[in-house]
Design goal:
single chain; mainly alpha; 5 helices; 68% helix; 0% strand; elongated
């Protein structure tokens, strides 16, 4: 596996982010077109297909959103523990979850200083990642 950096840390899963999205979108468009062109006796089943396509679209969105929320909570716990180990103090409450997610890539040497800088300068997750000099890979998040 290649060295992870700011430029290479984001990950797209072709099957989920590409193929599945296109299939669901095609299903939605096709079911709406079927509903528009359906005869009166097929209106009920055509409308159920539209409903099903909307359900699949919402389900795929929420499956991803809930998994990311759980990962964010785990990252917050991990980085809070790391801050405590490095400083003997609790992670400041001023640090937002988005900042914590960006800070997880910082090495231990620059982590505490970046926490302080993130609070003082109200850095975004993206800005924090760009500031990191010694990148610590996170290969488990997708």
């Amino acid at each position: 596996m290649e060295q992870q950096t700011y430029a290479s840390h984001s990950r797209l899963v072709l099957g989920f982010h590409g193929i599945l999205f296109l299939m669901i979108f095609s299903f939605l468009i096709g079911s709406v077109m079927n509903l528009i062109n359906s005869a009166k006796e097929n209106l009920y089943s055509a409308s159920l297909l539209v409903l099903l396509s909307i359900i699949v679209l919402l389900l795929s969105y929420y499956v991803r959103a809930f998994a990311l929320k759980a990962q964010d909570r785990a990252i917050k716990a991990e980085e809070s523990l790391r801050y405590f180990i490095l400083t003997g103090k609790s992670l400041p409450v001023e640090v937002t979850i988005r900042q914590i997610i960006g800070l997880r890539f910082a090495s231990d040497d620059e982590f505490v200083g970046l926490v302080r800088k993130a609070i003082e300068e109200k850095l975004s997750e993206k800005d924090i990642k760009k500031t990191i000099k010694n990148w610590k890979a996170d290969n488990y998040r997708v």
